[in-house]
Design goal:
The complex is a heterodimer of chains A (about 375) and B (about 400).
Chain A lengths: L6 H16 L2 H11 L5 H10 L17 H13 L6 H15 L2 H13 L4 E4 L15 E3 L2 E10 L6 E6 L6 E6 L5 E6 L8 E10 L1 E3 L5 H37 L1 E2 L2 E2 L4 H29 L5 H27 L10 H14 L3 H14 L4
Parallel strand pairs in A: 1-4
Antiparallel strand pairs in A: 2-3, 3-7, 4-5, 5-8, 6-7, 9-10
Chain B lengths: L6 H17 L13 H18 L17 H11 L10 H14 L2 H13 L4 E4 L15 E5 L2 E12 L6 E7 L10 E7 L5 E6 L8 E12 L3 E2 L5 H15 L8 H10 L1 E2 L2 E2 L4 H29 L11 H18 L12 H16 L6 H12 L22
Parallel strand pairs in B: 1-4
Antiparallel strand pairs in B: 2-3, 3-7, 4-5, 5-8, 6-7, 9-10
Helix pairs in contact in B: 1-3, 4-5, 4-6, 7-8, 8-9, 9-10
Classes of the chains: A alpha+beta (about 375), B alpha+beta (about 400).
Chain lengths: ~375, ~400
């Protein structure tokens, strides 16, 4: 029985934490948010130098050839320090898609450049102000030329490539697009958290490459989300824990009515609830990490369980962190809002809480074991 | 990460299972731990004796008291395997889980030899006498009196919520020997023969209609000083040992869980559709599934630490808060699913299990530490937050406001 990370993985995690702490990742995130820069390029370059973009890429393409568990521990630290970098878009989604579904020629072309940071990728799916589904994708590929408009695409403004969920005469497919084409028009969109930019991307008869086969794109997309949900969960756990840590230390420092506010049960019980939520989320995410790393048939339900628990935990911890800070928590100056905003970004980026709950229950209905 | 036993653990599990297969019936869905009330105590005692003779009764205890000096992970493996069999439960847990460790730590060698093996064997059953009518969450507010009289102590007062007092042979008892001292300093700890003259046991009727607990009255009950555990005035310190063990003993709430709710929703009618197609139902199922699996996986993390010989983190402290509240919600859900017929008690095991969950959950949210006390413990011991300022601090016990 070993539902825990190895010593090597824990070492990688503590190195990641030291690095992000030393780099002042949280202040960098604030700067990106205030200046609407979409990314901290310097921090991203250092992350590339550390080799994190190639953690999961096989050694034959120049990567580190490590497993998903290594990615999980790094994700937790990126979440804890609100890293203003396109790691989730480029690594959890785009890179994983190339590794899993691209043919050899594309892998040889793309993977080494993902490692070196020359390519940043993202996933473009949403087209309107509601959830995308198999039946409402209007973006169309005809003869490898892609036309349509995606919105709320995370990190697209700094991405060199996108993986586009597209319709075609044979069904939904995934298309790889190089943004250097003049036919791609990318525009910044205002959002509730500018620490990671979101963009609209317009494709006008844009050349594209098919990734995977041309009719099962929606299943591939769902599977990519199942995988990425585990990694998002770890980012959410990191953010939850940072919120609880902030609230706890403030509750010890702040006095009211002649005593530390952390001595009031109204505050103590609130923080205990946060601890409970984090513990559930963490345990479910550990299990999902195991399912991901072993490609278990339980992955779909396990990742939805991790995702729902972690989304709930981060939403609870980030909002109650503000509440614990009282008026200070509502100021721009304190960091509480950075976590509150990031919790929403992470919770909607790969689909909202109600939709993941639905995925979880339909997964249970499909599995015969429950 | 993996879910496999080590070679030694696998061997140990095999040994457990082989013995269990020879000595008990595996659980099946139809034979759900059904023993009739009258025979239950006898059946439980027989099973305990059987386990004791083979070394399984208290396997982590040293050999001289009937154990096999098993490691924590071996103890868990045994419990996992035993839980797959239809065996009687609920009689010995308090004695073995709470009284045993206190006796192990504070009794004389002679007393340990006299009492521990019979406790493990099940020939003598023990109970815990802590709570009082005016001392629940604030158990240190207890008032039962101990007056020293030569080599003896004379006890007067009342205890409450004592599980199994009506069939127990011995009990552990904390009482106040000096109300002029501060509240935590004026207590002393004993063990007592439950057949002593002056002890009267009265069952408490619970909101479920059942009676698992008792009131225990003490009128001039004489206890020899040799049955004192710890020094005079150390009663609270000794009690804390027991309460720490109680938190490990009172864990996951048994009863209807998300699986039962899910299976019920798949066949229950909801305005001409199946209830599982109701969006609110689906959300609730998702939430309960996350909680149930969160607890299961938390247990696996604790086991992982034990398996590596490490001390587990504080994560197991969330178990009762989460499971008792989930039980209450699931009970509610099951009853609501019948709409206006929800008041009825039909002959249907599933419906009854929801009703039992709903009626039993309020007790589980209180027993072994209320939700509120457990949250205090998490915030103070895990998060390091300060204690509430206490209105009774530094006062002699007799001067503490009590509302009566």
């Amino acid at each position: 029985m070993n539902l825990d990370f190895s010593d090597d993985q824990k070492f990688l995690q503590s190195e990641a934490r030291k690095f992000l702490e030393k780099e002042g990742s949280i202040n960098r995130s604030r700067k990106v948010l205030e200046d609407k820069q979409s990314i901290d390029k310097e921090l991203w370059n250092k992350i590339v130098e550390l080799g994190w973009t190639g953690i999961r890429i096989p050694e034959e393409y120049g990567g580190l050839g490590l497993g998903h568990l290594e990615l999980c521990v790094v994700a937790e630290e990126l979440g804890r320090y609100l890293a203003p970098v396109p790691f989730s878009s480029s690594v959890y989604l785009f890179t994983e898609a190339i590794i899993k579904y691209a043919d050899e020629e594309v892998k040889q072309d793309i993977l080494p450049r993902l490692i070196s940071g020359d390519i940043i990728g993202t996933l473009a799916v949403t087209e309107d102000l509601f959830a995308p589904s198999k039946t409402n994708i209007k973006t169309l590929t005809d003869n490898n030329l892609l036309t349509g408009r995606k919105i709320a695409v995370p990190d697209a403004g700094i991405a060199t490539h996108s993986l586009v969920v597209s319709n075609s005469t044979s069904g939904i497919c995934l298309r790889l697009v190089d943004h250097s084409s003049d036919s791609v028009i990318i525009e910044h969109q205002d959002t509730i958290d500018e620490s990671r930019g979101h963009f609209s991307v317009e494709y006008n008869n844009t050349p594209s490459i098919l990734i995977g086969d041309d009719s099962n794109g929606w299943d591939f997309y769902e599977n990519l989300l199942d995988q990425a949900a585990v990694l998002f969960s770890f980012e959410q756990i990191g953010g939850s824990q940072a919120s609880l840590d902030m609230a706890t230390s403030y509750a010890k420092e702040r006095y009211a009515f002649g005593r530390q506010i952390g001595s009031f049960q109204a505050i103590k019980h609130k923080l205990a609830d946060m601890y409970v939520a984090i513990t559930l989320a963490k345990s479910n995410s550990y299990y999902a990490a195991w399912a991901l790393s072993t490609d278990s048939s339980d992955l779909s339900v396990a990742s939805a369980t991790a995702r729902v628990s972690s989304t709930k935990a981060f939403q609870l911890c980030s909002k109650e962190n503000i509440q614990t800070h009282g008026g200070n928590g509502f100021t721009w100056e304190y960091d509480c809002h950075l976590y509150y905003k990031r919790s929403k970004l992470l919770s909607v980026n790969i689909g909202s809480l109600p939709n993941w709950k639905e995925k979880l229950v339909s997964g249970l209905e499909k599995s015969n074991t429950y | 990460m993996d879910f496999n036993d080590t070679t030694e653990q696998a061997q140990f599990r095999k040994t457990c299972r082989e013995w269990l297969e020879q000595n008990a019936e595996p659980k099946s869905s139809s034979s759900r731990e059904s023993f009739s009330d009258i025979d239950f105590l006898e059946v439980a005692k027989q099973w305990q004796k059987k386990k004791y003779d083979a070394g399984w009764a208290m396997l982590h205890w040293p050999k001289e008291y009937g154990g096999i000096a098993a490691s924590p992970i071996e103890r868990i493996i045994w419990a996992e395997e035993e839980s797959k069999f239809n065996v009687p439960r609920g009689i010995f847990e308090i004695g073995l889980g709470m009284c045993g460790p206190v006796m192990m730590e504070y009794a004389t060698d002679e007393q340990k030899e006299r009492f521990l093996p019979s406790m493990a064997e099940g020939t003598e059953i023990w109970c815990q006498l802590f709570s009082e009518p005016s001392a629940g969450s604030d158990v240190a507010g207890l008032r039962s009196k101990a007056t020293q009289d030569g080599d003896n102590w004379v006890i007067n007062g009342q205890k409450v919520w004592t599980s199994g007092a009506h069939f127990c042979d011995y009990g552990i008892l904390v009482v106040r020997h000096d109300p002029n001292l501060e509240k935590h300093k004026g207590m002393t700890f004993f063990f007592v023969d439950m057949k002593s003259p002056g002890i009267e046991v009265k069952p408490i009727k619970q909101i479920t209609g059942g009676s698992s607990f008792n009131e225990v009255y003490f009128t001039d009950v004489v206890i020899p000083d040799s049955q004192r555990l710890g020094a005079i005035g150390d009663g609270w310190k000794v009690a804390i040992t027991t309460l720490m063990n109680e938190r490990l003993a009172v864990g996951d709430a048994n009863g209807a869980d998300v699986k039962e709710a899910f299976n019920w929703a798949k066949k229950q009618d909801d305005s001409g559709e199946y209830l599982i197609n109701n969006r609110a139902t689906r959300e609730s199922i998702a939430d309960w599934y996350c909680e149930a699996n969160g607890l299961k996986n938390t247990k696996l993390r604790t086991m992982s630490a034990l398996s590596k010989g490490e001390t587990p983190g504080p994560e197991a402290s969330i178990t009762k808060i989460v499971s008792a509240n989930k039980l209450q919600d699931i009970g509610n859900f099951g009853i609501d699913s019948l709409d206006m017929a929800g008041m009825l008690k039909p002959e249907n095991n599933e419906i009854q299990s929801f009703q039992n969950a709903w009626l039993g959950a309020p007790g589980l949210r209180i027993a072994g530490g209320t939700d509120e006390i457990l949250k205090n413990i998490i915030s103070e011991r895990v998060l390091g937050l300060p204690q509430d300022p206490r209105a009774d601090k530094g006062l002699p016990f007799k001067d503490i406001p009590s509302g009566n």
